[in-house]
Amino acid sequence: MSADHEAGPMSSLVTFGETMLRLSPPPGGRLSRVDRLDVHVGGAESNVAVAAAALGTDAAWLSALPESPLGRRVAHALRGEGVEPLVTWTDEGRVGTYYYEPGGKPRGRRVVYDREGTPIRSLDPGDVHSEPLRGAELFLTSGITPALSAQAAATTGALLETASDAGTTTALDVNYRSKLWSPAEARDTLEGLFPAVDVLFVAERDAREVLDAEGDARAIAHSLAAAHGFETVVVTRGEAGALAVDDGTVHERGAVETDTVDPVGSGDAFVGGYLARRLDGAAVPAALSWGVATAALKRTVAGDAATVTAEEVRRVVDSDATGDIDR
Amino acid sequence: MSADHEAGPMSSLVTFGETMLRLSPPPGGRLSRVDRLDVHVGGAESNVAVAAAALGTDAAWLSALPESPLGRRVAHALRGEGVEPLVTWTDEGRVGTYYYEPGGKPRGRRVVYDREGTPIRSLDPGDVHSEPLRGAELFLTSGITPALSAQAAATTGALLETASDAGTTTALDVNYRSKLWSPAEARDTLEGLFPAVDVLFVAERDAREVLDAEGDARAIAHSLAAAHGFETVVVTRGEAGALAVDDGTVHERGAVETDTVDPVGSGDAFVGGYLARRLDGAAVPAALSWGVATAALKRTVAGDAATVTAEEVRRVVDSDATGDIDR
Amino acid sequence: MSADHEAGPMSSLVTFGETMLRLSPPPGGRLSRVDRLDVHVGGAESNVAVAAAALGTDAAWLSALPESPLGRRVAHALRGEGVEPLVTWTDEGRVGTYYYEPGGKPRGRRVVYDREGTPIRSLDPGDVHSEPLRGAELFLTSGITPALSAQAAATTGALLETASDAGTTTALDVNYRSKLWSPAEARDTLEGLFPAVDVLFVAERDAREVLDAEGDARAIAHSLAAAHGFETVVVTRGEAGALAVDDGTVHERGAVETDTVDPVGSGDAFVGGYLARRLDGAAVPAALSWGVATAALKRTVAGDAATVTAEEVRRVVDSDATGDIDR
Amino acid sequence: MSADHEAGPMSSLVTFGETMLRLSPPPGGRLSRVDRLDVHVGGAESNVAVAAAALGTDAAWLSALPESPLGRRVAHALRGEGVEPLVTWTDEGRVGTYYYEPGGKPRGRRVVYDREGTPIRSLDPGDVHSEPLRGAELFLTSGITPALSAQAAATTGALLETASDAGTTTALDVNYRSKLWSPAEARDTLEGLFPAVDVLFVAERDAREVLDAEGDARAIAHSLAAAHGFETVVVTRGEAGALAVDDGTVHERGAVETDTVDPVGSGDAFVGGYLARRLDGAAVPAALSWGVATAALKRTVAGDAATVTAEEVRRVVDSDATGDIDR
Amino acid sequence: MSADHEAGPMSSLVTFGETMLRLSPPPGGRLSRVDRLDVHVGGAESNVAVAAAALGTDAAWLSALPESPLGRRVAHALRGEGVEPLVTWTDEGRVGTYYYEPGGKPRGRRVVYDREGTPIRSLDPGDVHSEPLRGAELFLTSGITPALSAQAAATTGALLETASDAGTTTALDVNYRSKLWSPAEARDTLEGLFPAVDVLFVAERDAREVLDAEGDARAIAHSLAAAHGFETVVVTRGEAGALAVDDGTVHERGAVETDTVDPVGSGDAFVGGYLARRLDGAAVPAALSWGVATAALKRTVAGDAATVTAEEVRRVVDSDATGDIDR
Amino acid sequence: MSADHEAGPMSSLVTFGETMLRLSPPPGGRLSRVDRLDVHVGGAESNVAVAAAALGTDAAWLSALPESPLGRRVAHALRGEGVEPLVTWTDEGRVGTYYYEPGGKPRGRRVVYDREGTPIRSLDPGDVHSEPLRGAELFLTSGITPALSAQAAATTGALLETASDAGTTTALDVNYRSKLWSPAEARDTLEGLFPAVDVLFVAERDAREVLDAEGDARAIAHSLAAAHGFETVVVTRGEAGALAVDDGTVHERGAVETDTVDPVGSGDAFVGGYLARRLDGAAVPAALSWGVATAALKRTVAGDAATVTAEEVRRVVDSDATGDIDR
Q1: pLDDT tens-digit profile of E226-259?
Q2: F32 touches chain C (CB under 8 A)
Q3: Which of C81, C250, D317, F316 is the most exposed place for a label (fewest CB within 10 A)?
């Protein structure tokens, strides 16, 4: 294994995490019968980078991939979206895949993860190019990464430290995955990382079930900020929008009505939209509006990536999206 | 014509009827312009067998097919779904097809049947392997089969007698098809079959329009049971669920909220789900719940077949289907 | 350039305008990422002709196309729909295309026009076969055609005069396109054409924003009829149906509930349905009902063309469309 | 049943025969497993009309179809190709279909016909609009039509007589189908029709196996012309081209090298190309060249129809087809 | 883990090995860019069972799969092909996948295996239902299975012993995979299994490179038979056909000319065709002919499975496959 | 119009030219009938950059695009392939498209260009970021760019001067397009550019027909080098490989046998492969080998882009491409 990744300019935003191939049947199809699969590329942290890049942020994604056509498939997708792939290419390991079967009520959506044996799980901090972290304005990872393996958790911690030491703002999106670990395991590990984290993103449900927070969203945000000394805590509430406590002040934004085509990745789109505006100098309320709008637009698009434009997000933020044909 | 069908172990459930190829255009497409057709395999009685097999019942399907790639297409599909095809292969005749054009309001769905000349129409009782009927726990056919031809009606009657004589429970799903016969013709023929039928499935509308039943669903079930001595009468009520009179007691179950992708075959899925549970020893109320849940799940899946699992049905029955992504 | 178009019998309805290839991504896809495009053929005036032809009207479409596989693609589509293409084939110029990206709330639908350099823009009245106009019962064009170029506006005017002089009823659908001209430019040009127009179709919004009409739909229709001496003014109101002032009397029709698959071309379908009935001798109220029903059915079908049948429209008009499967 | 077909102008070429939907799996797919079918429209006589229309001939097709979306599908396809469908629409009967499975060596191509019960089989001469036959320059049918049923044979004979009596040149393409009748039956019936036939098209193999002709292609043509008094006999020889005896003179043309995508309909394309040139006034040698070139081009195109242009055929005839990209 | 597999009747042929999902891009597509994947199901030993079942053999396949939609996808495919899946369903592990990228000269075909972590690798002989082995006529596995893991090698050995002890003929197809082990490792392990093997299938190249055989195919077969006491040794020679030494006598069969659509699985189709005939009582020469013909037909079909019929194979064997359309 | 393009690191290779969307029907389909189009992105100069980037070169592409989803589609594709798009985004103009219809013998391939009105045609040297040219090692453009418009020719000349003045090696691929200009016009314009060109790529046919060169490929290369003082002249000869005169020495390389799926862009792949090796320090003979191998691999892949890897090219160069499955 060698950190033989590609050189690039300094990015404002660097994210770190695993990205997979998503394989899904056509609408109404079942994985247990499927003859054709649509391929998308997705991972919480690269999704954030894609959304931010779509809105103008210089973004890079730090990870490991096997040197194979499938590893290149992932890098190709991110590069196309304008995200610099800072990849540790490996001889061993496989590309994670996940099978996603959409399904309406009462079936529900189904995800079959097939992500064992991926190289990020055995990635040593020394294998990662930590240099870009030092030049970046913000470093983001999620609670999925440390859940992958003990090694991945250690590397996540080391990278957060590196960034923090270099004066780079650090952010973590809790993103609890019950198929990877238990709430107790998650809480233990994440609380170990929190001292090096400046900005926390957390879904209201995860805050309750994993971090044992109590009360309404506002109370949750305040108590988490207080308990761990976060600069900012952003609580996402699905259909109910999002709320942030920033330096003690609460900001709130309701959700936008959407015709959902594909909900996967909308939480990441929120984070990407929020960060793009923050990195652009906007205040928290404006960033919340952009996050919510980016998430809503994502839901109208197939795939994990928020393939949107700043102009589209601005139109939603300005309530100028009537759904009419513009001609 | 020779009853040269495949051998197999005894099945709990044997169904008898015609199965066709379903050809449908992509969403928004019109048959009168179509360039591509999706192929599914469906028939009321084999749909019942598929649903029951999906839930763990040993199921077989008795029918006739021409020896051709299209005949094999039908058998292949059922075999894949775990249903034993007990087929009388013929040199003559064609595979029935039906063209299905989905369409929302105000267009409505359109079905063009192309089912003349199929071998089941000239199938003599002597051509059918009646042996499996004798070992089965339950034999089901529908009102579609006797509607196909006088010969098919005679064979349906003979098979019901055979099963009944052997102590196999017999069931009939009225399934009135206005394109095959008039209500009066249907009533005459079906009433001739009723003496050999133990369990009747009937849609509320068919009960009124074909069987001249009156009153609400409850009254209908009671009066049909009384008039023809059925052990059980199950009245299906579409969006309003289903109701059964079993040995004089009424059981009822409301429908489940569904995001419908393809409604075709949901009535058959109900019957399959109901029978699977009954054959598994469950009481009527539990069977109704499983029938309704299987039907609801079917509506989320493209094609005539209820490609569901027992676990999925159980989750719906247990009200544990939130529509959330399970990850 | 030579008016070397195809001969044909006299048509009741002749329309004049530009028709394009429509290229659209699959559902949930984005033009900025697209790998496959569905091809449809559409243009306001040919859409009207297609809808009318579908309902039994002898219809022709007058236009110019380059002699190329793409030009032939357009003619092939219209011919298939039963519309006679009266085409001036040219050596120069291109086929107009437009890219259509469907998208639900809050994204909205997006149209990217790519219609510069089409031969209809430089079409001289002398290049057009004006003969069929003289034998037709009704000649229709739209406000899009004169918006294409000064030459196209002049030719539109000349054709309206020709038709009017020959005793052919003339109709114009305002169809304002903000990407082609400003409201003021549109009003100037259209008002120059109005003296030769008998029947005006106008969306309520266009009436206000382009023609400076005021008041409710009824007032708009009355004032436009009075101001320009139209025989009939039909005001379309989207979800609220349509209203006509005909010889001073007001007729109104509410919209039909629809499950929309593709809204493009539904306004043209309305006009086609309305005209088909009028040309068939029906009174205005019946024509309004057919227009509204044709538009509703169009919305259930992919593509710009109203590939419906008279029987389907009649069922909707007769409120006999229950959405049930007819089998 | 009523001969309620559409009016149209007089056509130079009128053909009579059955046209079907062709359903085929994607390359490498098997009918016995297929999930998707491509739809094409084809029939020997309408294929001839399509090829001739593509090359500029006014062509019409005489047949019967059921009034259904599938019947309209057939008429829509032919109308799009510029062929006037002179259809007797019926309430009864079905649209013929055939399933076509392409397959290379050693599998071979497979056709499954599903053409029973089509309305042309019970079409009475009185149900057919014989008027266009009288104004046409040439009337063509094939040996498939009389093979469909005794009634179809009688109607074929009556139409040939009608055309012949009106001074319309008559042509018959032998087109022997072993799945419809035996060589002896075919010979008997066809020889009954020959007295009313002016031009005979026959594959060399059919001439030998059905018509008992002997010797080489030249001898076959001479002997058939002599035996039945044909004005012209055209013998097609597959890869070896075609040969005609016309008024006692022999003309020959070798085949053109082709990269075959779909061979179905290439014989019909030959006839259409030949007739288009003859009807345009060309001599037999030129017509043979056009026939061979049209057939070769057809083989490069998916589907039964020769969707070619006169310019393309001319380029092949002029040996100006190098296979290079023209840019 | 529990051997909770499905009951079934005794099969003549039982095979044991891993079966995977095959994911492949459309023709000309690259895995490193792919947006859609076609799904097939394949594994050397199940491919053999499918081919034999297609030709009439009662066949079963012994393996392990995780209880997941993807595991069910595999079982569904085999069941559809008429092969009884005798599956040990597990809670742990994944379904193996392999990505297959077809490519002509000079690119070559590319296979990316993703088969780590599959449950067959940790399958204990006690987890396998060994009962069917005892009643079968022939048990087949391949050199791929013992290459998967030490545990899989041990279980393979145990099953061969079980079969052998029960008087069931045992067969092994060497099927060397360089991505799984080295020639030396393969030789060591396979030679340990040979004493329990009656019939050996081996590609000529594998015989040389793995088993160190020398001389021409004939010499190879003789020396392997002599060295290990095989009853029969079948040497496959790709384009040059196949050769068998059976009880000291040599039989040979040349290959059949094919238009290859998909070569994957043709070796397995050979074995399946050969065994089907042998189990049907045919002598070795006839079995070789059927093997070669089945392999040739497989190459004309997309996917790993030989979806052929006995009639098709017989036609090829009888040299009755002309490639002509049969109509 | 503003040169508001994206910043990036210095690239070794910068190319300048127009890139279009390529729209093509599925195999066997015709543009005049097409319902679906596959979208690829291609342009001679960006194709060269893609091929070089695939082989490891830092490559950038200089051009103009309208700010629209289609303009972004082009940039997205190139970015995905690892080429930095140095785009002048404009408010006016359209994205060029070309329709490509593949077709075997005798039809030939057909290209319909639709490239009028693109912003590169009115691009002023001042609108272009000339900075990257100065830092690059090599600047390439083709004879297509100056053929687009007089302004484009002037800008091409200015950029060649800029590069030349900065010491950047300059290369020009003649790439004659008969649909854009005559041989005489091309010769005049190109000869005006030649003084600033160091390396010339020219197809043997273009050398003869456009540049009036005579003799065999060797003579052509010598005479062109002599006449215009080129450092290197590379003559490409299609199936016969390529030949270079470099500093007076001749090097030659035969073509590689290929199974062609899509020939478009293979000439550009040659240039990209050649330059990648040259920029990597290789001598001309090795570069020729890489060019020829890259071109051959391109022909096995759908689309204009050489989506290959250095390892694949190396295998072909090393004659290690056997077409066998590597597993």
Answers
A1: 999 999 999 999 878 999 999 999 999 998 999 9
A2: yes
A3: C250
